[in-house]
Amino acid sequence: MLPFFGDINAVIGAFGFRPLDFILPVVFFNLTFKPSKRSLVFWLNVTIAVVFSALGVIAAVAAVRRIALDAKNYRLFANV
């Protein structure tokens, strides 16, 4: 019934997987252990959080775009 299941997985991954695995751990590390703002660890964690946040937004936009482009080919209960 869901011929676009892979595209839906991409959207869910962009909103769920990336933040939970790449962004939140480094943010929580900085909040919990409070490294000095001058330390390399603090700035490396901030850099990782910013880069993967941008990648998450790009991935979400790309996944939604892929659904929109493939929408004309979808048929409910199609015999693929």
TrEMBL record:
Organism from which the protein derives: Hibiscus sabdariffa (roselle)
Source domain of life: Eukaryota
Record's subcellular location: Membrane
Amino acid transporter transmembrane domain segment(s): 2-63
Transmembrane segment boundaries: 12-33, 40-64
Pfam families: Aa_trans (PF01490)
InterPro entries tied to this protein: AA_transpt_TM
The keyword Secreted is assigned to this record: no
Main location: membrane
Keyword entries, A-Z: Amino-acid transport, Membrane, Transmembrane, Transmembrane helix, Transport
Name of the protein in question: Amino acid transporter transmembrane domain-containing protein
